[in-house]
Amino acid sequence: MIKRLELKGTPREIGEEHGRAGVKEIQNSLETYEKLFFGYHRISWKEARERALVHLKAIEAYDSDLIEEMEGVAVGAGVDFEDILTLNARSEIALTGRKDIAFADGCTAIAVTPPASKDTIIGQNWDWKGSQIDSLLLLNIEQSDKPNITMVTEGGIIGKVGFNSAGVAVCLNALITDKKSEEVPIHLGLRAVLNAFSFHEAIAKVKDGQMASTANFLMASDEGDNRTMAANVEVSPFGIDLLPNPEGTHVHTNHICSRSLMKKITDLNEFKYEDSMVRKQRAEQLIYSALKMRPAINEDCFKEWFSDQFNYPNSINHFPNEKAPEHRRSETVFSIIMNLTRKRMFLCVGKPSSHQYVEVSSHALH
């Protein structure tokens, strides 16, 4: 079971309740990332905190409410602000700047819109450290002057995968690259997307090099009356590339697809051919098969796709590679499916092949 937190109020109040009620999950996150940073880069937690602090000025200029909320989390959990900032900058610390990481990351994200489906459905398998299953939190956030949010995240991280009451949703695919900047960490960019009232506003929050590192944000928006869109948005310190598909199917895994971004950034995923590219092509094959053989694509299709074990252990339903060092093993930690048209969400904690999806109620659905 995942711990569910109902958060509302000012950014500081939202953060303090997150910290108080999620203190065990936050402590687990701190332990996981201290080990991970040392395993990847041989850096101490003290040095990781110093690396996170370089982003502080940009975050303050971007949205000071994010600072307020992280400060609240720190107070509620009884830890330092720098600890929470470091968790929110963990991708910039762990997944950029080194050519010797040799790490195969996971995550398969899929979205369908008309004409491929009557409904706008978006979801992903989130593949990461197996220990982070004990850090998961389901946050329902009520905030003034911004949409309500339902989000699955790791304890202490204030932006991740979810959707909002304006019909905007986002999923994340990590990308391992050689460059970063001192701008806004991508997890805070995810929160900015979920704070947006429209697709337009969401794009504006991540374009023009505002993000400190490279990642894919699979975004979708359903405004009702068949006004809907989804697109892979590869963000980077050098700007974005929007990768839409007018046929209404969208897949992304863990390698850069944008030709323009590849001219500026080196993709360091050394296993992209046998892992990331295979998962992407397999997901596209499953979608194409469904379009040919089924009367309609629905949430049950997503459940089948996310349970797929072709190319085990590097399958869409990802298993840890026991031959890899422990800190580099990745597996499916949760799976999420969001139907923006019908305003419902399904969540599976653990691998979909061995655990059940549960429908989740939320203020963001209304």
TrEMBL record:
Pfam families: AAT. Residues 118-353 form the Peptidase C45 hydrolase domain. This is Peptidase C45 hydrolase domain-containing protein. PANTHER family: BETA-ALANYL-DOPAMINE_CARCININE HYDROLASE, PEPTIDASE C45. It comes from the Bacteria. InterPro entries: C45_proenzyme-like, Peptidase_C45, Peptidase_C45_hydrolase.
